[in-house]
Amino acid sequence: MCILLTIIPRLNMIDETFIKEIDSAHKAANNAQQDKNFDLYMTFFTDDLQYKQLNGKTIGKKQLANDVKSYFNRVKSLSGSYHRNEINAAAGKITERLIQHSQVSIRVFIFFSKKWTIERDGIYEWIRVNGKWKICRVEVLGEKIT
Questions:
Q1: What is residue 56's DSSP assignment?
Q2: Separation between Cα atoms, residue 95 and residue 112, nearest integer Å
Q3: Residue 105 and residue 77: Cα distance in Å, rounded?
Q4: Which pLDDT tens digit goes with each residue over 56-113?
Q5: What is the pLDDT of residue 110?
Q6: pLDDT digit string (tens) for 121-145?
Q7: Residue 74's CB: how many other CB atoms inside 10 A?
Q8: Which pLDDT score is estimated for 111?
Q9: Distance (Å, whole) CA 65 – CA 48
Q10: Contacts of residue 102, Cβ cutoff 8 Å, sequence gap at least 6
Q11: What is the pLDDT of residue 13?
Q12: The domain at 16-145 falls in which architecture?
């Protein structure tokens, strides 16, 4: 199970190689999401994922998979980027705090769609599983939808 690490900027310097690997994982996950490649996208999460939503409810990978599948079925298009505010490495884990920006267009009924922008602040904890970085814990801290 993943545990929350206290994020202390610059106290525990992180190797640039790890940052590049995490950035590469983010890029691959974002590409899978934009392509609505459900199977590939879900490989970026550990089986024991703990995802704490903004409402305080924590869900696991199975519920996240159900939510993502439903979401992918409705999405017409999406794009996104992120800004990393903090990153730390300890005990074989990398913890980062990100602000994600997404633009989403979702089908509403048959002929209509709705577009909006989402800004999400969260903590993401990564561990290496079989040589690949995977997200084992997420905590959504804030969200703005416009």
A1: S
A2: 39
A3: 5
A4: 999 999 999 999 999 999 999 999 999 999 999 998 999 999 999 999 999 888 778 8
A5: 76
A6: 999 999 999 999 999 999 999 999 9
A7: 13
A8: 79
A9: 12
A10: 78, 79, 80, 117, 118, 119, 120
A11: 57
A12: Roll (3.10)
Of 101, 131, 135, which is closest to residue 119 (Cα–Cα)? 101
Joined tokens for residue 39:
């199977």
Question: What is the torsional sign of CA 37, 39, 45, 48?
Answer: positive
Q: Report the alpha-carbon distance of residue 41 to residue 44 in Å, rounded.
A: 6
- Token pair 């392509």: residue: 35
Count of residues in the chain: 146
Which sequence spans correspond to the domains of the chain? 16-145
Cα–Cα distance for residue pair 141/21, rounded to 1 Å: 24
Q: Which two tokens stand for residue 75?
A: 């999405």
Residue 6 has pLDDT above 50, yes or no: no
The token pair at 79 is 């794009």
Of all helices (H) and strands (E), which one includes residue 17?
A: helix 16-34
Q: Name every residue whose Cβ is closer than 8 Å to that of residue 123 and which is 6 or more positions away in sequence.
A: 4, 7, 95, 96, 97, 137, 138, 139, 141
Whose tokens are 């209509």? That residue is 112
DSSP 3: -
Q: What is the pTM of this model?
A: 0.86
